[in-house]
Amino acid sequence: MRTTRKGGILVALASAVIYSSVSVLAKFTYRYGLTPAQLLKERYVVAGVFLTILLAVVDWHLLLPRNWREAGTLLGFSAVFVTGPTLLYFIAVKMLPVSTAMFLFHCYPAFAGIFAWLILHEHMTRTYAVSVGIIAIGLLLLLGASFHKISVAGVLTMLACAVTYALYTVLSQHLSQGTDPRTLGLYNQIAPAIVLCMITRGEPVLYPAILESRTFMLAVFGLGLSAAGGMFLFVQGIATIGAQRAAIIDSLEPLFSAFYASILLQERMTPMALTGGLLIVAGVIIDNLPPRTTRPRFVNIAASLRDTDRPE
Fold it and tell me: Which residue of 18, 70, 81, 192 has the fewest C-beta atoms within 10 A of its own C-beta?
């Protein structure tokens, strides 16, 4: 049992390490002139193909929902509530430093708690209130440290992404009941790929410029593979150690992203901004700590839904 748990922790940690590279790869590929919609299309096409092959090898039944109604629901819901937040995320990443963008996005549990209270009538606990307070202080320090150096439009876009993703996590909990998380994750890749191909209709599915540069090609394919692989590993981690522990490990993602950005993009955070980012991570971890009582409470819903998809 202990060995299994350690294995689950390592899998969840590997997911965070892999998934945290997505933002850095996206920032890097913007140097080659693709728009957010074009880059996001390539990300979802590559991830969708990769995940389809992976699930076919693991268990081909995972490729199919239980019925046509479920297929329509998954496709329609993902087309709106995955494509929208992810597009906002990629637009914000283009305007902001990667570390700032990642820490801003990870404020979404604070908004998810409000939506869970309004829509699902979840109880708000003292733990949640403390976590929101810590996240708010961290947010103020993060933005205050570089207020005159960052794009206000980028900050507002990423906060809009966090709000819409929080809404997605809450609605997903209700709509995806009974669906295998891996199947849901697959449809969350396929539906946005279809939508973005329609948005960029008349353009090639895979842009020739990608194949003309080995560095560009590796970055784009790495973007798609990291997103699909990180999601798949997170599902396995949840199955072994549970959603709460996996979510705590997942909250380390912004730290890995900041580390990657400092090495690959030469981005540097001021001590105050880093302190703010660490407080945001601490607030998310506190929100995911197991409750002391059995009274219903809001637990970071995205803990069990990262297996579906993330804007990164």
Answer: 70
Q: Identify whether the C-beta of residue 192 lies closer than 8 Å to the C-beta of residue 82.
A: yes
Task: For 102-160, write each residue's pLDDT tens digit.
Answer: 999 999 888 988 888 888 787 878 888 899 999 999 999 988 866 667 888 999 999 99
21, HSE (Cβ side, Cα atoms, 13 Å): 19
Task: Compute the distance between CA of residue 112 and CA of residue 45 in angstroms, rounded to an integer.
Answer: 28
Count of Cβ atoms closer than 10 Å to residue 262 Cβ:
15
User: How many angstroms separate the CA atoms of 222 and 232, rounded?
Assistant: 15
- To which residue do tokens 């950005």 refer? 261
Tell me the whole-structure pTM to 2 decimals.
0.84
If you count them, how many residues does the chain have?
A: 312
Residue of 206, 212, 259 lying closest to 99 (CA atoms): 259
In whole angstroms, how large is the CA radius of gyration of the chain? 19
